[in-house]
User: Fold these one by one.
Assistant:
Number 1:
Amino acid sequence: MDITIVFKIAAVGILVSVLNQVLVRSGREEQAMLTTLAGLIVVLFWIIQYISDLFKTVQTLFQL
Amino acid sequence: MEISQIVIIGLISVILALMLDKHNPEWSMYIRIAGGMLIFFIIIQKLEPVLEIVKKMSEKIDVDFVYIAIVFKVLGISYISEFGAQLCKDAGESSIASKIEFAGKVMIITVSAPVMLALINIISEIIP
């Protein structure tokens, strides 16, 4: 639970946007959209896991 | 000191969010969520003793613990709905944010109903 999460997400974001630009320039718009979608879903799984940890912590803390 | 750590994390996530915002804004939304959660997890260690202090104080002035538990519940609900609503507002979706806030208010009212009933009972006893 430290800063590396933010760096990981930023790295995946930059990678996907660069890949997107390369694929679009080389004429393959579909693959570009698919790679962006794949990157989004991967990071979504990480974020969902962290958000569930956050909400569990709040529930145990405030006896919700 | 935690406060400097928190400020640094906030600044780093803002910079990364801005950097990613140009090409595709959904990534900056992810960075905002991650940064917000990170700061919360750092401050959570400080919040537990504060809640213990509030509990001890309430025992000293012999307030029934049920009311303090309701106060904590309201705190938790308002924190989570605030967290979601602000994120939606940052992304520009103020309509969804207002829905979340409205739902949070309704939840708070349902949780704090017994306190209101107790208050009304006391008042009705005082005024014959």
Number 2:
Amino acid sequence: MSQPVITVSNLKKHFTVYKKQPGLLGSIRSLWHREYETVAAVDDISFTINQGEIVGFIGQNGAGKTTTLKMLSGLLYPTSGSVSVLGYNPWNRKSAFQKQFSLVLGQKNQLWWDLPAIETFLLNQAIYDIPEAQFRKTLNKLVNLLDVKDSIQIQVRKLSLGQRMKCELIAALLHNPKVLFLDEPTIGLDVVMQKTLRDFISEYNREFGATVILTSHYMDDVKELCKRVIMIDHGKKIYDGLLSNIISKYARNKTLSLVFSESVTKKSLTEFGTVKNWNGSSATLLVSRKEATKIAARLLESLPVQDLNIEEAPLEAIIREVFGNKAKSA
Amino acid sequence: MQAFKKYWKIFWRFRKLELMRMMEYRGDFLFWALVSILWTGFNFFFFSLILRVSDTVAGWTADEMYLLLGTFTLLDAFTWTFFYQNMQRYTRHVFTGSLTMLLTKPISTIFLLTTSSNSFNNIFRFLIGCAAIVISLHRMEITPSISSVVLYFFALMAAALFIYAIWFMASTLSFWIEKLDNINEIIPGLRRVMQVPRGVFAGAASVLFTVLLPISLVASVPSEILLQKAETKWVVWLFVSSFLSLLLARKFFYFAIKRYSSVGN
Amino acid sequence: MNRIAQQSNFYSKVIRFKFIKALQWRTEMILWILLDIFPFIILLFIWQSVLSLSASPSISLPELTVFYYLVILVQGFTVTHFEEYRPEEIRMGKIDFFLIKPYSFIQEIILNDIAGKLLYILMISPFLALLGYILWHLGLFAIPALTTIHVLVFVCLLLLAYILQFCLSLLITMTAFWFEEAQGLSNLKILVISLFSGTLIPFALLPEWLQKVTNAQPLKFLFAVPIRLIQEQALPTAQDWSMLFGTLAFLIGTIFLLWQRGIQKYSSAGG
């Protein structure tokens, strides 16, 4: 159950980008003279992922998440370092390897736009050499899980974004890939649809023991699906471990929610911590993580507290803070 | 053999998909079919204007010219049926970075890129081309032998493959040059060279268009085969250059892929 | 007065912006230029081989060369292509942005095209000059003796031919409100213009019926009239001028009518 499926060591990818100066003069000058700049999109990243894991890649736009996924898929040649997926070197692009993994890019589609999705599925059956019986079985299962029985007969361009994404997923999973790279699979979808897709991914992972790497802007995706996360910032890995440990590692504050039996002044609260909300009969306080319990005890003693709750700061806020600090110190 | 069967199957599945798509947009198909017929007629008309000034073009009589134009029409119809849309998509894949999706599939990327699409708009031009050939042969009272018809057919295939190879190479340039939406107009831009007798080009131009980049052979040589005035060395060169350019196109593509860095992140 | 200054300031800013945008496509433009010039060179080869075998040619190679050279020149200075992609913007509902801004879709098309045209002219001119020089060296370029009047009228005709081309493209664009295949009409436009505006071969070599058809309709102002002005020193007659301006007035009127109707249909179709 736990031999490494993906091994990445000292992976680097540098891009050369061209800088255009602003304005008409800049445009004309760039006819003769261009300035280039090297950007390290991925800068010395190493990790291993075991079979059956779902790992979340977290990072801001341009942090290097997609670039890493593309190198794992064999689409980009690394500047240096090595990658092994299922024992293959991805950029040899062997058919045997390609038949065992799938890449889903939330912002790009592989379905034929003018035809029903089922046609693309049949095409993929031929491309991936999927035997008829297995194809029918997998298709049925996926269609039922995602509840798209009717949609697959309708022209793709007439489907809603959510239905289309479901069909994209089916197209990517028909050959039962052992490794699945999902790049922003829920982008642009509504909350209900995001939830459906999440449940589906988790179900697929359990059923087929597939290894999944997921990048997403939506923290909910990561929170629900991934036990382990890898945080990437400016091409560097800054955290790799359990999602739950992020909180103990990075969170400095906890939130105390208070409800009072009689009105309390704002001033009487400031000595305990930072007042975030206050309306007389209830309040929320931000207090240091270490002293949260002590402060809570003191509050119960000195104020007419009816109800008290100690909460961890939301993950989004922590992550925003982590990247925010990084950006400032950089 | 197994692999060939797979590719054969997928090739025809693509044709089926395109046929379904065409049915979806019937009005569009009829409209473009009409446009293609009009352009073909226009082209014949243009050469009839030139032939009013003189009876021959580079020694080819009017009937011979129409046979040449018929042959060119067949090739051109084939080109627009199979190449234009695919190459258009190919460069769009490169520009938008969606080539990535194709590269992850367990099948030859060149095959996917160059066979997945086609258009049916030009099918009537095949009829016009055939008609022009048959009528001009009849007027010249030439009955070609079976062997020359077979050779004609193979020479046409070689010519089509040659056009395919140079077009594919031109499109592959899109890996290097961004903002070049008209990259697929380069080869169509050479069509004037293809539809006139190779004898039109003298001196340096002749070296260029018959030896270095033998696009003036593609319609001329097959036509000469039917007219029984083909020279062996040019027939051989058409086949050889077609084979070489296919090899080169393949090499070039893999070279391009190697240094391909997908757009965006 | 202030308003005029404000307006012209606005227009020059937009054109400047569009110019920068168009500059990004310079490689594409150079390719278009080469694709415009290349068939011309091939045509010279064809005619060379035709005339060299003809016992008593009815026209000389230099005359033909100047004719085709003028065709490219007029084409480079006047042809518009925006009907190949603008209808799509209407069909896909992308003109919403222009309906909520104090900057109409038609203004956008005009300014965008003017900037693009300016850049194209700027880029094709050195090519044309070089080509002319080479042809002149080869003794193929017989420059006719022209008076200042001829040159001035030629420049005027170029400008008017551009406006005419522009109106035709805009007319096709407007049909996109009703007609799915508006983009395809562009193809028919090029076909009809090629056939009836005198671009194929010099006017004198056309069959008589085609000469009559060409003369009887306003498409001749796109190529035949400016070219014959140079080659035959034939100034347009008063009748020609009234046909040209009448056509322009008619086209502009029709375009505005279609725009008004189209925009109503467009906004009531929303959803």
Number 3:
Amino acid sequence: MGGTRGRSKKRAANTDDMWNSKSKKKSHAAALEGTAEKLFQELLDGAAEQQPEEEIDTEQLNMEGIAMLGEKLGLDVETDLRIIVLLWKTGASKPGTLTKTEFMEACKNGTLPIENGWSSVKEMLPRLDIGFLTGNEFKDFYKFCFQFNRQGTHKTLDKELVVALLPMVLKDRVPSDRLESFCDFLTSMEGKQEQQYNRITLDQWASFWDFCVECEDLGAYDQSSSAWPVLIDEYVEYMEEKLKK
Amino acid sequence: MANAKVIPLEEGWNEIKAKALDKLQNILNEDMKTGQTNLFGPKEYVQIYTTCYDMCTQRSPYNWSRELYQRHGETIEQYLNDYVLPALKDKPRQGSNILLTELQHRWKNHQIMNKWLKKFFTYLDRYYVKHHSLPTLSQAGLRSFRTHIYDVIKADTTQAILSLINDEREGKIIDKTLVKSIVELYEGMGMGTLDAYTTDLENPLLESTREHYARKREEWINDSTPDYMIKAEGALREESDRVAEYLNSSSESKILKVLEDEILERVEMVLLEKETSGCRALLQNDKSEDLNRMYRLFQRLENGLVPIASIVETFITEVGMEEVQRRQARVDGEKDKNDDPSFIKALIGLHDKYLAVVKNDFAGHSLFQKALKNAFVEVMNTNVGQFTNAELMSTYCDRILKSGGEKLSEAEIEESLDKIVQLFTYLTDKDMFAEIYRNQLAKRLLASRSSEDAEKLMIAKLKVQCGTQFTSKMEGMLSDLAVGGQQRQEFEQRIRQEKIPLDFSVLVLTTGFWPSYKSPEVTLTDEMQKCMNIFRDWHDQKHQKRKLQWIMTQGNATVRGTFGKKTYELMVVTLQAVVLDALNDGVTLGYEELAQRLNLEGDMLKPTLHSLSCGKYKVITKTPAGNKINNTDTFTANAKFTSNMRKVRIPMASLDSSFSTKKVEEDRTIAIEAAIVRIMKARKTLQHQQLLSEVLAQLSFFNPNPRVVKKRIEALIDREYLERSAENTGVYNYLA
């Protein structure tokens, strides 16, 4: 995110040099704001068309609105993570929602480049690939994935969702056998253990990533001294059992 | 003395030699008579001393100090070489006693000679010796003896002493005084240190002791362990006595150490593990004396008690487990009850027995206390059958405390409680015991079936073991009853004004102290309801901030019933009373009607009806007859009911389960989380393992699985009391 912010400052400096006038700057900002308003309204309208019977909150985009955003940018919301990276960069703070304030602010500070409408945003899409995220950025983004996918006031994610989400988010960062076996493990917990793992907590979600980074070799895993969540302990047990067979 | 005649060296020396030295030699050679201590009279002595003095005080070149000092030495040396050494030379061949006797004799003589020579030449000691820092006369004399006699003869004498000691070890009588005096000679030869004694006598002695007892060990080891131990103990005592009698006291610890090595340490495991007479066998046969001897012997060794304690622990665990198996067999044979006094009694018996063994035979040594504890922790926490040992123990307490149970005297009650509390300390799930105990206590208290003093006594004992927190609810229950007693009188005065045809009293219990009871909203009789309203008004007025909840399942009533011509007093619980009232005056009601009228669900109404119509006293007739209450049954009062007693108690099964494991689980969850938060609040940041061990240390009433604690940590992370440190996933931060 730091990089993005740096770029926007630079652009502002250039403007100053060329016109050296506050009013020009103001009018540029006003124009930008107008475009942003227009684009946001487009998204709201698109969403309203999709769900005509619902009452539309004009101050925020719901999931339909976000799907609309994906459509405008030519992204498949179901499978393309770049839409979530974009939302993360825009600073979406509520699960499944992008507020107008957040949208406008992102347009203003250049996180969302909109000089030429949607095409400007499209231009930046290649930069949103999660492969570009550094370790800490990714960690933050990874947590965002959990938070954004929460439903309203629920503090946990449904297991099915986690099993679908994890491979998308981690596929290039975690060895596929680890990912697959973990998802298998989650699915196999069905009905067992008083169904305690039907929902996944943020701590469990976040710890799985740390666990993948810190513990590549399961053989070296020491359950008695580990501070990992019990879920991870049980995953390791599950893998040991599997090995024995 | 200026004009006094100068004494020439030879003249003076000859005088001294003739008057003193030769005479002394003669006396010594002629075997001086015993008791003759003054070999020289004062006059003779003064004369010799004066000559010596004069010779030493004459001015140079006539000062003969140096010469006299030299000749003093030569005199001794010559005497030793001419007389003493030859006398000893052939003795070793003639036997130890003869050698030692001769040496003793010669040593005595030398001491006399040395003494007198020192007296004669004492003036030398005062100035010449001091001035030139030479050995004093007596030192020089001793050194002479050491060089010319001791060093030559010591190998033989040491051998002689050792052979005498070995003779004594084999039971022969030896001349201890003789040996003692020779030992003193060895001690003297160190010139103020024990070096000579240690090197020349003690070391060879230790070596021969080692050999001797190594032989003995091989010889004794074929005996039974108790016999071996008796011999070993005897040997230790003998060696100790020997040192006291004629050796230097510093040798005692060294010699005993050799014995400990040879006859104890090397064969400890062999002795302990002897099939028919080892430690196990001794425990099995209650060989108190032998066990005590075993303890005395092996506590001498560093870590010598460890293997014994381990055998004791295994043994006690095994006998305890036998009881558990016996219980298992009983449980397999018949339906398990929460009351198995024979199991608890057997364990108490075992505990008494082995506590006494630890106390008496093993001197209460901490290793054995620990062994007993470990064994009982294992036994007490092995649960078989449907009911945990915690429940069995609590039920055993119930038997003791309940009036009409075991029928014990006050002293017996206290003793039994003491013992059960001892067992209780080994229980890991103390909270489980507390929960069950509280339930049973509540039953006893509500039914007034125990003595308050005994209840208080037991609670006090638990409090000593586990602290205030553990017993606060139980104490609260007792104090509810105490307060209730005072309030009842006040209320009785109040209700008398109302002229109610009922005896009515209420027990106010504090929520939380007591187990939670079901409280159905049963429709009561008008009289009852009226009484309750009066009480509620009265109580609300007194305690405005309290909320009353009526627990109908715990109430009792005595109702008068007339069956035919006979009248009985029926002692029933409130629900039974309400049902009886509904069927008063010969009314017949169907089950559904009853349920509706009384506003009772089946889980309450059915057991109540069952107790009245299917129990021992059938005061109600059920149609159709049968042992099960169906929704289609009808009920009416049994006009033909008769009983020999005028007062009839109609028992009814309890409507509340005795206790809930769930409750205990919940309490544990709270306790673990509270401990985690408490610790983290103080420490702010803590590593996982450390947090875990501190939590386990704080939880004294149960012993949770680490994974359970971990789950609580996770729950607290979810609730944002804690977070995982960003730098290290094994470290937690406290979030204020």
Number 4:
Amino acid sequence: MQYAIIFLPLIGSIVGYLGKSITKYFSEVTTSLFVCISAALSIVVFFDGTQNNNYGNYIVLEWISSGDFKANWSINIDPLSSVMLVVVTLISAIVHIYSIGYMSHDPHKPRFMSYLSLFTFSMLALVVSDNFLQLFFGWEGVGLCSYLLIGFWYKKETANNAAIKAFIVNRVGDFGLALGIFLIFFYFGTINYQEVFQMVSQYTDQKLTFLGLEIGLITLICIFLFIGAMGKSAQFLLHTWLPDAMEGPTPVSALIHAATMVTAGVFLVVKCSPIFEYSQVALNLVTVIGIITAIFAASVALVQNDIKKIVAYSTCSQLGYMFFAAGVGAYNVAMFHLFTHAFFKALLFLGSGSVIHAFNDEQDIRNMGGVSKKLPYTYISMLIGTLALTGFPFLSGFYSKDAIIEYAYLSNTILGNYAVVIGIFTAFLTSLYSWRLFFKTFHGSYNNKKTPIEKTHESPLVMLIPLFFLAVGALLSGFTFKEMFIGNHSSDFWQTSIFFLDEIKHELIPTWFLFLTPAIVIISIPISYYYFLSNTSILKEFKNTNLPLYNFLSNKWYIDEFYDILFVKTAKNIGSFFWKKGDLGTIDRFGPDGISRLIKMISNKAARFQTGFIYDYAFVMLIGLSILLTYLILN
Amino acid sequence: MNFPILSTLIFLPLVSAFFLFLSKEQKNNNSAIYISLFSSIATLVLSLFLWFSLDWSSSDFQFVEEQSWINDYIKFKLGVDGISILFIVLTTFITPICILSCVNSVKNRIKEFLIAILVLETLMIGVFCSLDLVIFYLFFEAGLIPMFIIIGVWGGSRRVYSAFKFFLFTLLGSVLMLVAIIAIYWLTGTTDITQIYETKIPKEYQNLLWLAFFSSFAVKTPMWPVHTWLPDAHVEAPTAGSVILAAILLKMAGYGFLRFSIPLFPVATEFFTPLVFFLSIIAIIYTSLVALMQDDMKKLIAYSSVAHMGYVTLGIFTLTKQGIEGSIFQMISHGLISAALFLCVGVVYDRLHSRQISTYGGLVNYIPKYSFLFLVFALAALGLPGTTGFLGEFLVLTGSFQKNYLVAVLATFGVVLGAAYMLWLTKRIIFGQTKNEEIKNLKDANRLEVLMLGTLAIFIVFFGFYPTPLMETFNVSVDNLILNFNQDLDNFKLVKND
């Protein structure tokens, strides 16, 4: 069964593509069916684990063995990976079905479905690995699929550039991850998770000098691993690829850039909790980066106008939440938020896809509005998604996001307190931009000039049913799984898959604190309604008086421009310099070309001696004779 | 085993080249292709048989043949072990593919071209079988001649310049190696390397001798800064020439390091390791950046070869298990991948006669099969896990991290650059808008081309997922190499302390 979960998507991917010409819907049906079976089996495995404690490690094949450097292809089922299995296969199955409708007019559907299934396989390979090398395989595998899917519409220059950017920024992250793996292998002599985790406590005092700094071994490993996580999860400084990745088709954004791949970084940190727990420095770094990302992305999301980019920045921001949850030591809460976020963010993306579909590929929210009656089902699902995202009481986001803020409070450190303040403020910003998106899209007047309102249409059933399932998830996943994931007995569920050095005690929290975030979230709804819908002139005024701030935010803090100058242009310039001045100007000029020129010159000179006149030769002989005589006389 | 299987392997292509030479010129030269294809496949089968009948669990030289040659001093001695067998198989595997590629790309004097390829095959197999320095030198240097002719006769417009540059560079290093071989003979009284392994070369001579060998191998690898002949040679060489050059000729140097430099001169190897690391790192970073800016496809791939060979030299001189195994794996992997990439360039060059990247763009719209294969090879070249390119690089980096973390960090950074130039190339050729009208009438890869490229793709992916057959082949030999190296080093140090 475990084998089937992993390999069905791969088989679906290959068979679906190869058999595309058999019948019309062959690829769509095959890939979707295989992933659905895989999802059903994952749920069985998940409950088999929780009820019967049926976990295990299955080795498929030896991959590589070079001295002590050994890795197997393996399927490791533990509570953590079984949660990820459910998230990945379930969302993937939903997205597969949705894509049948969304991509129905695209001539390259089989390729698209095949990529989606291939992605699912890579992601599963990532989460069920029992060693760092297979993790790396999945890690780059999902990066590849992301590259292929972002660049799916390969005729678009922007899509190609976004695809390359995504891959290369991720490669920078992978660079860190790879170094982390080298370091682990060097000191621990193995790259198997279990063996590494058992040895960590012996190395807590090990120090080494790196680039002139003395630093703890465990800390350095964690920092390297975290750089990998930052790349994949689009954390601050390595986040630039994620908004650009919205060039890909919307189902891709829902699956890869919201629910699954981007959470791989969080998964890595949680999976390596036995290492991270021994390095407070690294955990603090995780927290700080998480906080910065959360507030940075939320601030940028406030002023974006592309519906998908707003949701993308929102994803970035929510990932920040997950990281600072992990950073303060609440790994299970981070996983819980990952779990609920998968549902409501996929819902928001697929809902946005439905809106974009309705407006005939319009993505700018300034050109929308007034269609709440025309798209009733999309409207309701987006409403549920928005409520869940903002953390409206009793929806899924409420349980997980508030838990993060509470745990940050309970961690009782200075950094934890910062996290609380920024977490609450970001929750407020989240509400603002979410409701801004929602109101501008569905309420107010109809603003689209290209498509008349009569032409907007509700999506077909094949797109609405997935929305329905996700809406159910967004409504209930928080309430249903709260006890299991983060309740008082959650350690019974997670067992050894998450490691706590000393667990945060679930003490009593002041009542006012418990009510603070929900209160802010609820208040922000009328505020948003007033500013974004009924009285927009105040904001316009504000924008005009604070133009620098507005530009700063809408240009995403100018980070892309900065990188372009610092890395892209520099690399190209250095490349040209090395080529023109180094290879051609120095090595060739003084090397082979120089030598051949020199030989030519000397032989030309030498040739001039051969004049053929006797008096020339006689003169040379005379000179030679006189030199010889002088030499003899002087001796 | 009395049957001289290695000699047969070496001389089979030569004999068929001789037959080809005697055969009559015909109008359509299909018979020449069939003859050479048949003989090269026969060689391949023989080499596969050799591979499977080799005892992998022993590090000794096997199938050893010995014949006295000149006055009993210089022997014609052949033998293979777990390391060399893979290079032999690589050679015999790539040659038939090259011969197939001639069908489309070589238009004139195809018979002579095939003769050159077959002679070259003989010489390359000879290099990997030789157990005597003089024999090795002869095969190693004689390989220059057919390659020189291939570039000079069937090459592009600047072929004469490139051919001479290639010849000058490689000959310069080789002359020093010849002097070193004579010196070794003078020191030890033999050129049989198994005997030299036993008698050892005195410590005080090692550094100079190592440098002499190094000068030859560094040019062939090629290492920075003596790499500039490679882009020119590749650009002007016909497709089959580029393939052999990248896939096999470059590997002779890496093999040379493993077979000669390390076991013969352990002290010097230890002494010069920082130099090799330094040059390898420059090769990786510098040429990756240069590759980024190329506007000629073949030049770009040639520069990427230099960067990939940088990993090889880096890995070999880490003298760790992972480093050396990674290097050997990387050499095999690069043999397959670079061969495939040059074939890919050849396919579109045959149709449009341009190597300029700007000529292409948007190929995927019109020739999807080709584009898919190109993408696979590009991804393998940038080291995507699941292809052979990844395992080689990753093992080399793992090994180098154990020696020097700074070197490893810099080399790992090269992986990022590798992704940059390879993806950018793919984007400019395969994806994007089609600007050139001619592309719209392009024919997709024909059956022959799909066969060649598909075979390579299958092996690149298969060994990426399941490298065990390769790893097991050289496992024991590499263990033995490292063990002997460390023992020799200890012995020399003991002598010093006394």
